[in-house]
Structure formats: C-alpha cells, structure tokens
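INFO worker-7 received task bundle
INFO bundle size: 2
INFO processing item 0
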Amino acid sequence: MLTSLYTAITGMNANGTWLSVIGDNVANMNTAGFKASRVAFGDVLAGVVGSLQVGRGVLISDISPLFTQGSFETTANGLDLSIDGDSFFMVSDAGARYYTRAGQFSIDKDGYIVNPDGLILQGYLADTSGNITGTLGDLQIAVRQSLARATTLASVSLNLDATGAIQTSAFTLDGNGDGTDNDPLNYNFSNTITVYDSQGGAHQVTMYFAKTADNTWDVHYVHPDPATPSVLVDSGTQALTFDTNGALINDNSGTTISLDFGGSVTTPQDISFDYGTGTAEAGDGLDGTTQFASNYGVMHLSQDGYPAGNLDNMMISENGIITGIFTNGQTRAIGQIALGKFIAPDRLAKLGRNLYSESFDSGQPIVGMADTSGLGRVLSNSLELSNVDLAEEFVKMISAQRGFQANSRIITTTDELLQELVNLKR
C-alpha cells in the first residue's frame, strides 16, 4: 500500500516537469527562431508481487526540441535573416562555434555581422575581385572597398556628318599662334569622354574628329598636361574609314592610344577606342560609328574604368551570397553565409540565448553553402518566428494539470486508507 504514495509522487514530479516545459514554450512564443520542446514519458521498472507485475510510477525519459519550420515575418532590415529548410546559422565567440536559427543580425563597430549577443556570423570569405573562396571565417563587410580600375577600353558610337568639309590644314593645338597648345583648330566635331587612371582619378579626354579626305577621318585624343593643366597634349591619332554607303570599314582599334596622366599613376596608360565592327573585321559596319549625310550625333559613349568606392548598401541572395553595392556604382560579392546541418538536431545541447552546441549524440555538422547539398535557403528581410502552437500548449497544460491533481488525489486516498488501518486497533 505504501508504494502507491511513491508512485503518485513520481506522477506529480513528472507532470510538474511537463508543466515547466510547457511554461517555457509559452514564454518563448514570441522569441524569433525558438523551437518548442516536448516531453517523453516512460514507466518505472515494475515490481513483482508473486506472479503479478506492479508499476512503480512514471519518469521523464526525454525532453527534446521540435525542429519544425516556423512561420516567416517580413522586416525592413536587410540583415534580418531566416532559413527555409533544415539548417543552422553558425556564429563564433572567440573561436568557439555555436548554432542558431535566430537570424536577428546587425553590424558592430568593427564591421562584423553579429547577433544581439555580439557573436560573429560565419561564412565563406571573398577576395578583392569578388570570388568566393573556400575559407570559412568571420563575415566582415562594413570596411570593404571597391578598388579603382584604370580605363583600358572605350566604346564610341556616333554619326559623322558626311557633308562635313575636308580639313585642308593639319590639326593643331596652337590655333591662336601664341606658342601655347591650348587652342585646337582645324577639326569638324569634338566630344569629351571621362577616363580613369590606376588610382581612380578622373581625366577628361577630348576626341577631335577631322575629315582628311572623302570617307576618311582622323581622331585626335587631347587632354590637359598633368604638369601644366592649361596646356593641352595630343596623345595620338586614330584613322576611321568608311565606304560609299556610310558604313564603317576600319576603325584601327587594334592600335592603342598611350596617355600620360602623371608620374604618380601607371604611365603610360594604354586605351583602345572602339568605334564598332567594320567590314574589314567581318562586320556590317553599322553597329557603331557611321558616316551619313545627317547631323553629327553621339549614340553611345562608355568606358570600362571607375574610381574607388566605399560600401553603400548590400543585398543577400537565397544562396547566402552577400553582394556589396559601392558608391562608384560597382557591385561584387563580399562573402557567403555558411550553414550547418546535423543528422540528429534534436540531440544538440541547448545553451540558452537561442544557441545550440554540438554534442556527441548530435554528430558533427555538415557545413556548406546555402541552398546546396540539402541545406536550407537564406531569406533576407525575414525572421523565422517561434514554432510554438499556443492552442496545443494550452491543451497540454490542462492535461498536465489534471495529471498532477489525479496523482495528488492518489496520495490523499492512500492516506485515508492508512488512517482506516490505524483505526482498526481501536
């Protein structure tokens, strides 16, 4: 009879623990990335009374998290991240690695992507050219810069008026005859393009188009002398030839123009000026520069150089690639978020603060790039909500409460039976 007291106590203890788990789930219903836990009960080894087996109560055999997918909430922060799939973000604290589903990240004063506790998000680093490497480390983005690129190619599409007069005198920079090269003369049309040196400095290069004969033009490339800006320098000449239909025959773009922008940068700087694909290059001569009897006009003007730039904004793709948008208009990859996946995620050790750590029972993580090898995809401007089902938790709470009450009633009933037994002596 006394064993029923101890059996009831195990029931009260088990249901009390179950209520604690339920309370923890309900308390974290608004915690981003939280995973609800569930309780597994098991009976205590039964005692043997003659040929009968009598149970000795109940115990908690396991408390494990449920890693079902939570709902998503859209946010305005690009560093709010969620995972659609079975994976974890990896964060580091002084070299110690932890795992989390909570994706509330921000940038700290040193430019690292960190969670609210200052743990650094881990990912694959990118080189200065934007190539993702296989090196796994701390993702740092705010200090990134886009290096300058010197102009090596300029593309020009325009129409040169076929009715323009042939220049009988040679092109000159000393048009006023004062001995200073600052007054170009003897040309038909001009246009200016901005090019960049090896340090990202901008330079204005003016193209002077001079008609030298029927269907033949010379292009002179003029820019200020770096030592004396008031003096102009003619850095080279390029010949353009057209057929009688106004189509480009040859632009001689294989000949580069060497420009001198001063001793502090790469000098000379060779730039190729491409005016289109002429018939001599197996083209139709109409995809770029033409010579028709219509007004001079520029259709297209571009070059491949740009200045240095600082990180201005960024975007994160579903495969976790962080693309930086820089003030010079360039974009490039600056890192890729790495994810970890476990064969037995419910065996991870819970550390609090939405963190988990690897355990012997969970096995080692499978680390890789998002949206590959069964890893989840990363959603930016999104947070994964708790997977706690409040209605289900309330039903469990009622069951736990009734179970606790029933076991306490067994103790009361056993006490009454013992009291009757004592009263038999009277």
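INFO item 0 finished
INFO processing item 1
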Amino acid sequence: MGCFLVNHSANYRPQARAAQELIQSSNKIGQIRHISSFFASPLSWIFDDPSNKGWNEPDDSGSMLGNGFAWGQSSHILAWIYHVVGPEQLVPTRVFCSMTNSDVTGADVSHAATIICNNGATTFSLSGTSLLPGNAHSDPPVAKRIMIKIFGTKGAVVYSGNDRDLASGSLEYLRGSGHDEGNDDNDTHHVGAVEIHCPELGFQFEELDQDGIGPESMQCFIDACLGRNDFYVGADILVGLRSVQTIDAMYRSNASGDCETVRG
C-alpha cells in the first residue's frame, strides 16, 4: 500500500505519541479551543550568512515568499502540533503574521503569528526567533527552547523545555472539569491536578544524534520500507500540508500587512 513519511524527528518521540493519545484517542482535553507555542533557536549564524543560500534565499521560481526561520525552524513545531492534535481536527483558515529580517541577508529571523483554525473555533498563537544567543553546534551546544500549550474544553496539555536537558520539562496533562458523569475524573477536587506522562523521559524534541541506529524517524522509515506493519507515522502527508499551508500564509500576511486566507 505504501506510505508517506516526513522527517520531523520530534514527531516520532514517545512524548509525541503520548500527547497524541491524550488529545485524540482518549479525548482527555475535549474540543481544542486555544494553542500557544514558541520556538527559539540559536541559529543567527545561519540566517546572517549570505553563503547559506539554501536557508536564506527563495527559489528561482518567484512563487515562494521568504526562506528563513519560518520555513527552516517553525515548520518543526507546527508539524508537532498538527500531528498530536490531528490535521483533520485542526484546520487553519486565516493567518495574520509580522516578521523581522536579517540586516545582512534579508531572511526572516523572527515572527509573531495568529492562526485562526476551524473557522474561528480555535485560536492559535505561534512565535519564534533565531535570535537566541549562542550556537546550536558549538561545544558545548546551546539548546533550542520550545513551549507548547494546548487548551481544550476538558483540560490542557503542556510540553515545554530545553531540548538539550531532559530535566528541563515534561509532558503535562492538566485535568479539567468537563469529564463524563460517573467518572472519578469528574470530582471537582481533581480539577487542575497535573499528571506527568512519560516521566522517565523528561523533555525531548528534535532528535539530532547520529550515533547508533539513528533517530526514531529513521527507524520508522526503515520499518516502512521493509513492509513491517507496526511502524509509527509521526508526520504524514496531511501534517506536511497543514504546516506548508500555515507558513505560506504567514509569509503572504507579512508581505501584505493583512490577514491572509489559507490556500487549499
């Protein structure tokens, strides 16, 4: 039958699987109403370098607006969110975005976006920057900082931390009051209680290590190629589409100064 996998390595981590289970399969947070997210990378050295044309310049077709931080980094956090919430359930419709750019290359290095989903039923804020001081590839490396908060009618999921420090964060489920009657979860004494999922793993986002047998994303790709039935699809074609649709609208909004409709 075949499959389509996108190599967003954070999506294949156990914490992403657990977050997807909380939100989609067990429906512990109900209908998604608001998402807040932030991604900072110590990558100014990439976006300020004119020789990094693949990172900083649009292609020759003229149809692509920008090629900086949004395409190079925010694509990862968007793919994680669309994966764990479900690209069928979270559908972007309109985007307003403002960006700042490198004085050297003109590449975008920071952005703040409001993404309206599901025809206004869900608000989604996305901000990011490459201006985190340091270098992700220095010795010792400076870590990326990630913050994701997903709020629903029954509860919330929070996943934030420093991607070089396992102890810097964890996957948290914050219990709400909208559970089914007859379930102990409906007890108001439990409202606001925090459950830690994957406590032994802590915070992990992108997997950049190239030692051993490779990241989970590569292992799943190999399993798919070998025809095994139990490989995990951490980022499929619809997750990729939602991410591209959102970023495309972000660039168009920054260029026009207006709220832009997401293209189908």
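INFO item 1 finished
INFO post-check item 1: Strands lie at 32-40, 92-101, 108-117, 122-129, 145-152, 155-162, 171-175, 194-197, 260-261.
INFO post-check item 1: The chain has a mean pLDDT of 89.
INFO worker-7 idle
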